[in-house]
Structures are given as structure tokens and as C-alpha cells.
Amino acid sequence: MGITNEKLTAQSKGDAPMARPPSKRASSSIVNWLPLAPFFLFASMFLFLPSISIFIGSFESVDGGFTFDNIIALFTVRDFINAYKTSLTISAITASGGAVFGFLLAYAVVLGGLPKGLRTFMTTFSGVASNFAGVPLAFAFIATMGNNGLVTRWLESAFGFDIHAGGFTIYSVTGLSIVYMYFQFPLMVLIMAPALDGLRREWSEACANLGGTSWHYWRYVAFPILIPSLLGTTILLFGNAFGAYATAYAFSGSFINLVPILIGAQMQGDVLFNPGLGNALALGMVFIMSISMVGYISLQRRAARWLQ
Amino acid sequence: MKTKNIWAWLILIIGLVYFFLPLLATFNFSLKMIKDQYTFEAYRVAFTDAQFYQNFGFSFFWALLTIVFSLLLVVPTAYWVHWRTQKARPWVEFVTLMPFVVPAVVLVFGMSSLYGGGLKLFGAPILVLTGTPIPLVAGYVILSLPYMYRAVDTGLRAIDVRTLTEAALSLGASWRVILLNIIFPNLRTAILSGVFLTFAIVMGEFTFASLLYWPAFGPYMEEIGAMRAYTPQALAVVSFLLTWASIGLMQWVGRGAGQEQLAGAH
Q1: Min distance B110 CA to chain A CA atoms (Å)
Q2: Which of B103, B139, B118 lies closest to A263, judged by CA?
Q3: With pLDDT > 90 as the criterion, what percentage of chain B qualifies?
Q4: End-to-end distance of chain B based on CA atoms, in angstroms?
Q5: Would A122 be classed as within a structural domain?
Q6: Does the ipTM surpass 0.90?
Q7: Partner B contacted by A30 (CB < 8 A)
Q8: Shortest Cα distance from B244 to chain A (angstroms)?
Q9: Which among A176, A190, A228, B74 could disulfide-bond with A299, CB atoms 3.0 to 4.6 Å apart, if both were Cys?
Q10: Is A299 on the interface with B (CB under 8 A)?
Q11: At B121, phi and psi to the nearest 5?
Q12: Residue ranges of chain A whose pLDDT lies below 50
């Protein structure tokens, strides 16, 4: 922050007292960038500096010296490995599940020949559902499939089927995955509906004119066009689940060992007895999210070519 | 054609069940506080708790602060990028995508160690912000940044920023007049959708408020959830209606404007 401030004042000072009128390009570039300073300053303070602090903290031992131990711990301590495994599993399951079902649903409302009003309804509802997450979502699913939940009771009374008979509990990876799906597939619907709109009627007509069947159309035309946005959105869903804290916390407390839960616990009571480990866990998350974001952006670029 | 239609209906029905069953179950659950009876007792209990109004009020206040600061930060920046400094666009867009890379729990972790005395110059902590709501509101501004920026950016694309600005300048308008009387009214729809989405995100937010120990609706709901049965579901219904109202309003004001929105904070 200090550096940015100095730079700014140096720039504005340098602007005024020049003897010779500055070349148009030099002065205009300062004038052009200066109004953006508050934005970048804010981003540095509350986005970049905290991230850098996590990066530095990951290499700090308890007594403040430099160490690789925290990073090594990510790959050796069983609790950490398990936390990453669980987080990655839930994210992968709900991202792919959400992607498949979300795509089918988007297809159904856009191209399935359903009444037009249903599409508007579905997109509005998807907007709401993809934002309905966190604590209330957890409560909703406890009321649905918790011990006293509507579905649990109904299965019991109607079929005599006890969902807990096989040792199953909703406060598990499977249960949490079902909960996450609630905000995952609506997001897919929201993004895929416009992408499906971008498929032009001429393309399917051209395919039909050339003697292609509907299978040919999807295999050789529509699917290759859609695949970047499909994969890209799947990656986005992955990140969406990977970073989720509130839903998991409210749903299962700290029963399920997820990376965000561990980080939260470390913040609340230094349960790892070493801030460096918390930083390293956080750094690992940022690393995985960065990879997925780079994948998302590059796939999005490819998708944009066709969906003008 | 007919079979295709049947498949579409089938998928739609599965989707609707997935959407509505949890809502139905929650509502049903919230009515059953008194045994063998359907009553609004849980709502009465929820709404007679003074803490409810306090925490709800706090969240409302955080949401207002977030909206004000977010608008002050995003609107001039996006406007300037459109009008003068198009070269800055990739940089600004990079920043607005960063909240997807840094999850809320990571950001709050970084902020609390950095501004809890971790930012040191010559061994002495500078800029300690814990105890002030600055990290909370700043965090909310960051969380809503992708949505707010996207909304305003879409709005700016739809108007001819250059012509409007240059016409105003040549007629002698001041910057205040340009921003407040020309750009702002043209962006009203876009700004409103950003505002409603930000409102929905902040009102139910849990991670930041809980880990920074500020009173808010999200942590309050979680606390009630750990203490009571039935009332939490009543609160969930209230929260859902709130989300529904914000998003519904957002899509209503943004109808036909090509607005799209992504998910909020989980």
C-alpha cells in the first residue's frame, strides 16, 4: 500500500511543474490512468495484499523464520491430505453432476419445445436458486432429508424404507453433495441457456440439407461448438463448490473435514497451533482455484468465437 | 418430435422437484412447531426475538454500506475504462475475476492476519483494522465486485459513452453533472440489478461476518440452528423470500437488457 501511494504522489507531482509541455502521449497516459487509482488501490489493499500475506505466511515457521515445512505438511499430514481429497471429490462430483443435469435442463427449456413461459420461469428460478446458498440452504435440506425431514419420513411411512438402515447419513460427503447440487445445476442452466440460444437454426438446417441426421448434427456440429462453454462452466462449478464454506459449516458443523472448514477452524481457535499451516492450506486452495480459473478463461475465449 | 417433447417434460419435472421439494419441506417443517398441528408458531417465535431484528438490521446496514462503496468504486472506474482508458480493461477485468480465485474463507483469513497486526513496518504493526467494520465491508465489496462490475459494464456497453460525454463536455457540463445527470440515469437499470444482487449476497452472507465476529443475519441463523428446531426453518423461509424478492426485482428491472448473473457467496 505504501508503495502504491508513493507512486501516485510521485506521478501527480511530476505532472504539474514540467517546463516544456509534455508530449501528448506521456501526459495523457497519466491523466488516463489516474482516475483508476482508487479502484486499483482498493483491490491491492483488500484482495492482493491479503493474498500476498497468505503466500508469505505459508513459508513462515512458528518463530517467524523461513521454512518449507508448511508446504510439505500439505502433502504429508494425513488430515490435510484427507481434507483436500474430500474437498476435491465433492467439487468434482457436484461439478460434473451439476453440469450434466444443468445442461439437460437448459436443453429442455430452450430447445425442448416447452411453452415459452416455462423458460422465463426457469431462468428466474435458477437465478434465485444459484444464490440461495449458505445457512438457509443447509436448513432447507435438514428439513428435507434430515432425521425428521419430509422425504425421510415419507420414505419411511410410505415404503417402510429407512434411509439410515445401511449406515447412511446425510451428514456425509454424499449428503453434502446433494445439498451443493442445489446451487450447482441452476448456475449451469443460467450459463448454458444463452449458449444454446447461440446455436443457429441455419446450422441444423444446413446439416439436414446435407443429409445429416440429428445425431450427426449433435456429434459434428452442435457439440463441438458447445464443448468449450460446457467444460468451462463445469470448471466454474468446480470452483464454486471448492470454495464453499457457509453451506458446509451450517449443514454438518465440522463433521466433514473440508479445506475451508479447516481454515475456518484455524481462524477461530488456532486449532493447528501454527498459523503457517493455515496459510499453507489457504495457499493450496488459491493454487487449485487459479488453475481452474485459467482453464475457465481459456475455454471461454474459445467458446466466444462461435457465440457472437 | 413427440418423444423429444416427453424427454424435455421429464427433465423439467425432475428439475422442478429438485427445486421445490426442499422449499416445500422447509415450509412444512416450519409450520409444525406445535405437535400435530399446522401453525405459524415458529414464525411468531422467530419474529418476537429482539436479536432477530438486531442482526437483520446489522445485515441491512452492511448491505447498504457495501452498495454505496461498491457503486462509488465501480461506476466511475467502469465509466472511465469505457471512455478513456480502454487499455486498462484487461487489468480491471482481471481484478473483477479475482474473487472467483480467492474464496471468501481464504480472503477473510488473509485479511484478518494482515490487518490484525500482521502488516508490519520495522517490526511495529501498521494499519490495524480489526475492531472496525472496514475488513467486513471491504470484503463484501470484493465479493460483489464481479457481479456489480459485470452489471455496470453491460449497461455501459449499451450506451454511447463517448458521444454522451463529449457532447456534455462541449456544452460545458462539469464532471459532477456528467456522472450524476447523464451517465447515472442511463445506467439506472444496470446499476439496480447490481444493487439487488449485492443486497441478496450480503443479507445472507455468513463466512465473513462469522469469522470476523460481526453481528449479521447469517451467523444469527446459524446460531439459532444450533439452539432450536423449527425456528431455523422459519428463518430459512424468510431468507429465501428475501433472495427471491431481490433476484426477482433484479430480473424485472433488467428484463430485455441482456443481463446475466452468476452465483453468489456460498
Answers
A1: 4
A2: B103
A3: 52
A4: 40
A5: yes
A6: no
A7: no
A8: 6
A9: A228
A10: no
A11: -130, 120
A12: 1-18, 20-24
